[in-house]
Amino acid sequence: MLALPKMLLATAMAAAFFSFSGCSQPLSTDVSTVKASEPAAPEPVTAKTAYLAMYKSAYKWSPDVVLLGLNSDEKSGFTFNAGKAGLWEATFASLSKHERRTFTYAIAAHSPDIYKGVTVGNGIQWGGATRDVMPIAAADFTVDSDAAYNTAAADAAAWIKKNPDKKVTTFQLGNGYSFPSPVWYVVWGDKKAGGYVAFVNATTGKVMKK
Q: Who's near 113: CB < 8 A, 6+ residues apart?
């Protein structure tokens, strides 16, 4: 008579075990949760963000460096969008070394020759400033690339409306005798074949006419 309660108890425990096991099935994976946890792709940056990173490397090369030019670069794998780019290129010159170097800043690596971060090019003899290529003082470079793009796009609005398929083909910062201060030079399409050119003062942010 004592064996019966033990058998019933064992049966009850087994039933409870299998019932619990049935409730412990692995939860289905939420695809949206997985996607959210994946690292986001690097986003394009403005010219100043890239400039500051490149300037640090240039200063280590030569403390008396000056900026001669800065431009976005649309090599394979990198795009330009509203004043932001994944790849920027700057030319710095050393007054004491009489040399200039090209520095690049990339938000990501892209084979075969683009590396993430700052890359320094070889030195090239530099004879000093010319009328067309003059140093750009940091104090005169106050308007960032996204703001310059918005101003240039507003100036070119009518042309862009008629030519919606045309993209920005040139976006660079330079300084020459033609203007009283450094300017952003923005070109949509081919300037020799009916494209549109806009000059934006890098100090005031206003459109300038050549």
A: none
Pairing type for strands 117-120 and 99-106 reads antiparallel
The DSSP string of 59-114 is HHH-TTEEEEEEEE---TT--EETTEESEEEEEEEETTTTEEEEEEEESS-BTTTB
| Neighbouring C-alpha atoms within 13 Å toward the C-beta of 103 | 27
Q: What is the 3-state secondary structure (H, E, C) of 156-210?
A: CHHHHHHCCCCCEEEEEEECCCCCCCCEEEEEECCHHHCCEEEEEECCCCCEECC
The three-class DSSP label of residue 45 is strand
How large is the average pLDDT for residues 132-141?
95
The answer on pLDDT for 25 being more than 70 is no
- Collapsed DSSP state (helix, strand, coil) of residue 55: helix
Q: How wide is the angle at C-alpha 97 spanned by C-alphas 96 and 100, nearest 5°? A: 115
pLDDT of residue 142: 95
Residue pLDDT, tens place only, 103-136: 999 998 887 778 899 999 999 999 999 999 999 9
How many whole angstroms separate alpha carbon 125 and alpha carbon 80? 31
CA distance 54 to 66: 12
Dihedral, 179, 185, 186, 189 alpha carbons, nearest 10: 100
